[in-house]
């Protein structure tokens, strides 16, 4: 029972896309308007046909009753076929037994027949029991002979092509509604794509400022917003670069003064603090510049050879970094940005684990994955996304020797987005962390 209710709710749930909602709203309105128009026309046709039938019945009964009254009784039977019509016919005799019809239809037909026959021929209208609507009007001629008018009310039959015409009109409504919704939704799709691929510092094409005035105005505002964001990013980089440059001089002077001081534990601590300040300044500027990872021109590289060369550099320094996986995979990307990404991931893995393994793979869609795996403690599941934010450190103490600056993964994530890729962190089932960069 619960499953049936859930399925019913799923079926009755309104569509989630704006395209289908607009389509259903417009189509429902048009179909209702079409139905109301058809209903009004059908009602008018019914009223006109009813008035025509009653008028014809009134005129025809007057002529037919007068004709039958003047004919000799033996000749009246031969004229019945001539006087017969589609909705009524004449019979000689009292007809079938029935009950008086007191409804509006019987009253109108009785009034029409009485009006046609005249006061000299009294008329009684009765309903004949049965499956189909059936009435009989009983008229007495001047010689006392009974005449029965058998009436079967019916409208003119619909033309055979009318249902096809209605189906064609409905199909045309559906097509026009779909085209109208498609034209209305297309600018939204363009805006969504432009927002998803927004790269203020990049070389991606600007949003076309054409179309209807509202769409062109929105596109102009979007391009202006993009320009402002690009300006703010460039200003941020300039400010951080200027701060870094201005801080280098006092940091260097302080380091020289400490170096000239006598050896002591305090001297080593001061030198360590100055080194941490300098590193923090450098990485802050690196993070600000990581948003502009596209300043480097793209180049074609062999991913396997590129990763092996990077691993060899670490091996030359005595670091346990190994590579396995795909070779010969060619990719067009920005090599220096990719090297910085992998270097940050490898350094982060070496900090918390004894060894690092790099795996290069390619899926069925041609996307290349570079996974940096370690055997360290991993990251709590609820923090896998948070560690990609700047200045977020798993080590919550103020000791940056153990917790780092909190910018390594953030720089890697920002640069990956800048070169059109994605960075995913996940814990390995066997223990440790896997940081995978997907490109292509």
UniProtKB/TrEMBL annotation:
Where found, per UniProt?
Cell inner membrane
Catalysed reactions listed for this entry = ATP + protein L-histidine = ADP + protein N-phospho-L-histidine
Topology in membrane = Multi-pass membrane protein
* EC number(s) reported in the record: 2.7.13.3
Where, by residue number, does the polypeptide cross the bilayer? Answer: 20-43, 160-181
- Protein keywords: ATP-binding, Cell inner membrane, Cell membrane, Kinase, Membrane, Nucleotide-binding, Phosphoprotein, Transferase, Transmembrane, Transmembrane helix, Two-component regulatory system
Q: Which CDD domains match?
A: HAMP, HisKA
Q: Which residues form the HAMP domain?
A: 182-234
Group of enzyme by EC: transferase
Q: Where is the Histidine kinase domain?
A: 242-440
In terms of InterPro entries, this protein maps to:
2C_sensor_his_kinase (IPR050980), HAMP_dom (IPR003660), HATPase_C_sf (IPR036890), HATPase_dom (IPR003594), His_kinase_dom (IPR005467), HisK_dim/P_dom (IPR003661), HisK_dim/P_sf (IPR036097), Sig_transdc_His_kin-like_C (IPR004358)
Q: Which Pfam families does the UniProt entry name for this protein? A: HAMP, HATPase_c
- Tell me where on the tree of life, at the top rank, the source sits: Bacteria
PANTHER family xref list = SENSOR HISTIDINE KINASE ENVZ, SENSOR PROTEIN CREC
What name does the UniProt record give this protein?
A: histidine kinase
The species this protein was found in? Azospirillum melinis
Q: What is the lineage of its organism?
A: Bacteria, Pseudomonadati, Pseudomonadota, Alphaproteobacteria, Rhodospirillales
